[in-house]
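Quick one: structure for this chain?
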Amino acid sequence: MSLERAQALVIRGYDFSETSRIAVLWTREFGKVGALAKGGRRLKSAFESSLDLLNVCDIVLIRKASGALDLLTEARVRERFPQLRHNLAAWYAGQYVAELLGDWTQDHDPHPVLFDEAVETLRDLDGRAAGPGPRLARFELVLLRELGYGPALEHCAACNALVAERSTAFSPARGGVLCLQCQPLERDRIPLGRNALEWMLRLRQDNVAWRELADTDVRKTIRRILGDYVTYVRGRRPRLLPYLGS
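Got it. Here's what it folds into:
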């Protein structure tokens, strides 16, 4: 057993007994971990409210053998996002971030870039009154890239030809855009105008481009495409997906 320190985002929590809780944490140093917080349900717990959903904490863990829960000995809040709970659309979006991190990643497989992007996403959602769609799209594109599922956006996913047409399409099954010649061969294709494609490229490359995306039609197109693609790759529809706006 070893004592380890880490930064952690609380992505789930379960009651374990009358006095203890299990916290699922997405850590910058170790990836996803499950940890037992003994006494975590007591009114005067040492953890207080640090294990609330979507809190960012500095934690201390006793690492256990593979397959066993780690033991959480300390959790101090580093950052909260209080405005999320006053904006239903933002709250759903934050839970969607936690759901993707929890369901898409393996235990003890760290992705520091993804951790940083998740925290930045929550900060932006916490401080933004407008619809969260473009910010979530940026997060999804980073998550897909980090986990090896980044969609093909510059070359046809079917024939690898450079896509330069103003009118193209996206195929979740193929994992990217389709040129005009390949579109008729894919039944699951989703129409994708050149403007939407250019915005997806910008969102993938620029971490602040989402602030400028105001076109309602483009936002709806990108939301549909990424929602369908995430669903196809994962094999099931994310629970929070129906509650997300564009």
